[in-house]
Specification:
It comes from Geodermatophilus nigrescens. With about 525 residues, the chain is of the alpha/beta class. It has helices spanning about 5-20, 120-125, 155-180, 195-205, 220-225, 230-235, 245-260, 295-305, 345-355, 370-385, 395-400, 415-430, 435, 460-470, and strands spanning about 55-65, 70-80, 85-95, 100-105, 130, 185-190, 210-215, 285-290, 290, 330-335, 340, 405-410, 440-445, 460, 480, 490, 495-500, 510-515. It folds into three domains: about 1-40 and about 185-220 and about 390-525, no CATH class; about 55-180, Alpha/Beta hydrolase fold, catalytic domain (Rossmann fold), CATH 3.40.50; about 225-385, no CATH class. Helices cover about 30% and strands about 20% of the residues. The chain has a nine-stranded mixed beta sheet with strand order 1-2-3-5-4-6-7-12-13, sandwiched between helices. The radius of gyration is 24 Å and the shape is globular.
């Protein structure tokens, strides 16, 4: 990964902060009202006769609806790629009497390309909606290899980006056939893998969507997916598996030390983790229910926060930000002899077995530092273009009138937020801060986990903010956020953070202002 001079970074981000703060404040608002629901011109049963090259309708079902979901026509299609034989399933849900004239596609998560069940929410809001399995059934990563053990390149490419584009053009054609008109606006809505899928669309197929909502996007998929097992490799190689309660003690200590950083209030949330300079060595000797934290334990934690490095110390990928939980990626368990051993995230095992080594029986415990570095480089070389959504040149999407709203929780344990910040900074460099802020914005949510959860204020309706931006020209400077106990907080556009004014109730979002972040250099050397 290339690096940039610190002064150049600060110059770009200072200009970005100025552009953000100068923009008018916009709250999410409903789109301009339609004259009324738009009715179909075809009967649901007639959609069985829908034709398109390489496409077969496999099911048509008329849903009567219930007290929550309107009546709809559900169409399932099989779309085949004539070049490589790849096949994706596409689900389209069409409101019978409540269509708002718009199309919304919904993304997947993990190794799942998407599901039919995700269409209920957009249906309730009046959207014609679609999703795809992106070429394989279910959430497992085993699809990377065929049953005979050979690589399934078509399935890999469909998951990478081809499947979503096939779904998009097919679903739009179905919408036009059923209603007799194209959708007035088309939107992408996804988080995690769904966020990556949305960025892929903006980068590779800039005319597919008018607005893209990309939450916690896996921008650099091969780097992230390979880097997730780094902590397990370190614990294995240093023979220092760390029990859960020691990690929990470290997390609690970091939050306590940096609680007021960024926002200026004590609320159990680090407002700006990148400005947190917590010293892990202060934990040495801390007694926990599962043992005393040692210098060896702290050394492992430091390397987890530092992130994956090569055997010569070169930067590979970002580590865990302070305030994000260790749980999930750094779990350990007891073996038959009662000894603590690593218990890696299953997705990481799938990735290494079915995409990197092409060996379903590969033992992750054979991975040393040198082997890890080799797997990391292989992942980037093999999948950087196919699955990575890291191209900063969004000029075609911008020129098509598209709007991109990205958001990411600062306490995300799985998809490290620095990767999203890194990408946004490169877009700013590529297109310029002023131009970028007119069509692409990033919001960082303190204390929020992967797509949801955590102690911080959860984004209330980022999709509504995107629609208001696309259709009403309301440029978002903040997103509304609310905690589990009802406290409100603005989620500010990067690189600004929400800081309490010192006046009024800190639980009232109106008492905060967006100010430039204290520390803006986030790029690792």
């Amino acid at each position: 990964m290339r690096t940039r001079p610190r002064l150049a970074v600060l110059s770009v981000l200072a200009a970005t902060a100025a552009a953000v703060l100068a923009a008018p404040t916009a709250q999410a608002a409903p789109p301009p009202p339609d004259p009324g629901p738009l009715l179909p011109v075809a009967d649901c049963g007639e959609m069985a006769g829908f034709t398109r090259p390489g496409t077969t309708v496999t099911a048509v079902e008329e849903h009567r609806g219930d007290d929550r979901t309107p009546a709809s026509c559900r169409v399932t299609l099989r779309v085949e790629d004539p070049e490589d034989g790849g096949v994706v399933t596409v689900w389209v849900a069409l409101p019978e009497e409540t269509w708002n004239g718009r199309f919304q596609a919904v993304g997947g998560g993990g190794f799942s390309g998407g599901s039919a069940g995700s269409l209920e929410a957009p249906l309730r809001d009046g959207y014609a909606a679609a999703a795809t399995d992106a070429g394989h059934v279910g959430p497992s990563g085993t699809f990377g290899l065929r049953p005979d053990g050979t690589p399934d390149q078509a399935a890999r490419e469909d998951f990478g980006h081809e499947g979503v584009h096939d779904m998009t053009v097919t679903a739009k054609a179905v919408v036009a056939e059923y209603y007799g008109r194209d959708p007035a606006y088309s939107y992408w809505n996804g988080c995690s893998t769904g966020g990556r899928q949305g960025l892929m669309e903006a980068q590779r197929y800039p005319d597919d969507y008018d607005g893209v909502l990309a939450g916690a996007p896996v921008v650099n998929f091969p780097e992230m997916q390979t880097g997730q097992i780094w902590g397990q490799v370190v614990m294995l190689q240093e023979d220092a598996p760390i029990p859960a309660c020691e990690f929990e003690a470290a997390l609690a200590a970091a939050v306590e030390a940096c609680d007021t950083v960024g926002d200026g209030v004590v609320d159990g949330v680090i407002g700006d983790p990148f400005a947190c300079d917590f010293d892990l060595t202060t934990l040495i000797g801390t007694v926990t229910p599962c043992g005393t934290i040692t210098a060896e334990d702290v050394a492992v934690m430091q390397r987890i926060h530092e992130g994956p490095r090569g055997t010569d110390g070169r930067f590979l990928w970002y580590g865990l930000p302070y305030g994000a939980p260790y749980a999930g990626l750094h779990d350990v368990t007891l073996d038959e002899s009662g000894r603590l051993v690593g218990n890696p995230f299953l997705y990481d095992i799938w990735w290494i077995r079915y995409f990197l080594t092409d060996d379903p029986d590969f033992d992750w415990r054979t991975i040393g530092y040198e082997e890890f570095e080799g797997l990391f480089d292989l992942a980037v070389e093999r999948y950087g273009d196919m699955m990575g959504a890291s191209d900063p040149d969004l000029s075609a999407f911008r020129d098509s009138g598209g709007k991109l709203l990205m958001w990411h929780g600062l306490a995300d344990f799985g998809v490290t937020v620095q990767g999203t910040v890194d990408y946004h900074e490169r877009v700013l460099e590529e297109l310029g801060p002023g131009h970028t802020q007119q069509f692409a914005r990033l919001f960082l949510a303190p204390g929020v986990g992967h797509c949801r959860g955590g102690a911080g204020a959860q984004p209330v309706d980022p999709f509504g903010a995107l629609v208001a931006w696309v259709e009403g020209g309301q440029v978002p400077r903040t997103l509304d956020g609310v905690t589990a106990d009802g406290a409100t907080r603005p989620i500010c556009a990067y690189p600004t953070v929400a800081r309490w004014t010192g006046r009024g109730d800190p639980a009232d979002g109106a008492t905060y202002r967006c100010v430039p972040a204290t520390r803006m250099e986030l790029r690792q050397p």
